[in-house]
């Protein structure tokens, strides 16, 4: 297990969960809803461990290794990856949770739990269930075996089937404040450079997982250039050139994603702050185009320099200097 994280945004979820689990009829299906990086997986494992524990029965120290806690997430991509996984070697993961994983879980549910009377199935992220897998899971949610509970970790609840949502109670996980994020970054030993820390907090928008990734990327210089592009027209394209230099000619996927996320967060922040309807419209349009470009980048194999110029141009087009003088 990695270092234990103290999640200050879990207090309400724990109250609701423990009130329910202490009642006479615990609901069998739960959705753990909130953006990525809010500790929902950690909560699911800890809550599952509490639910399956029985007095006088020794329990594994790590809930992830508990025989009565089944965790479904991205499996091996193909037969070659499955072979590598079986041999304990690194392997490529699929981008979805597949029906064969649900079928394997359902076969396990035909047997009794190993250590006690309860079993928990964690699906993370439930957003990425294939359609057939989601329909198969629905059958288990409709007729759950005695003592079986489901925890569906979801970053985008609207992507789940309405019939799945209707059979689950919801635990919501709120974003973290900047003060909470900063304290958690300190506890994790992240960089304390003020500019990079400020950029990481802005880009993370309340997600500790995102803040950690951004802190590692040293986003301070990138943020300063982006602020300049959002403030001015950059007629000589010096700002865009500097953006391309900072991103780097051989930036990996992680670096590019951090750049996109930072740009989107900065544009969204400006849109919330502006009092001009025209400016807000331009910022909303820029944000939509950044989201679209970020989605295309991994599959279109764009040149990194051209991507940087396109990001910079979108920021310039949404800048205050681009707004008509008459508002």
TrEMBL record:
Transmembrane segments: none annotated. Coiled coil: none annotated. One of its GO terms (biological process) is DNA-templated DNA replication. It comes from the Bacteria. This is DNA polymerase III subunit delta. It comes from Erythrobacter litoralis.
């Amino acid at each position: 297990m990695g270092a234990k994280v103290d999640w200050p945004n879990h207090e309400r979820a724990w109250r609701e969960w423990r009130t329910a689990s202490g009642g006479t009829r615990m609901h069998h299906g739960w959705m753990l809803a909130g953006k990525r990086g809010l500790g929902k997986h950690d909560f699911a494992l800890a809550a599952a461990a509490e639910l399956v524990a029985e007095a006088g029965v020794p329990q594994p120290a790590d809930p992830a290794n508990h025989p009565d806690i089944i965790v479904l997430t991205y499996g091996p991509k193909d037969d070659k990856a499955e072979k590598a996984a079986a041999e304990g070697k690194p392997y490529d993961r699929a981008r979805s949770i597949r029906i064969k994983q649900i079928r394997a879980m359902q076969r396990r549910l035909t047997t009794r739990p190993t250590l006690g009377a309860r079993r928990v199935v964690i699906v993370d992220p439930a957003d990425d269930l294939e359609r057939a897998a989601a329909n198969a899971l629905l059958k288990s949610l409709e007729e759950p075996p005695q003592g079986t509970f489901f925890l569906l970790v979801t970053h985008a609840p609207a992507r789940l089937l309405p019939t799945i949502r209707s059979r689950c109670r919801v635990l919501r996980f709120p974003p973290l404040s900047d003060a909470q994020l900063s304290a958690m970054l300190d506890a994790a030993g992240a960089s304390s450079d003020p500019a990079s820390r400020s950029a990481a907090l802005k880009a993370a928008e309340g997600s500790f997982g995102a803040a950690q990734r951004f802190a590692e990327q040293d986003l301070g210089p990138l943020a300063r250039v982006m602020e300049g592009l959002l403030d001015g027209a950059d007629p000589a394209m010096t700002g865009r050139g500097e953006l391309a230099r900072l991103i780097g000619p051989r930036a990996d996927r992680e670096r590019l994603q951090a750049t996109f996320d930072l740009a989107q967060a900065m544009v969204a922040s400006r849109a919330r702050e502006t009092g001009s309807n025209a400016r807000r419209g331009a910022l909303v349009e820029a944000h939509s185009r950044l989201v679209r470009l970020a989605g295309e980048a991994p599959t279109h194999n764009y040149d990194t320099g051209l991507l940087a110029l396109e990001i910079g141009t979108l920021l310039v087009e949404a800048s205050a200097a681009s707004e008509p003088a008459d508002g």
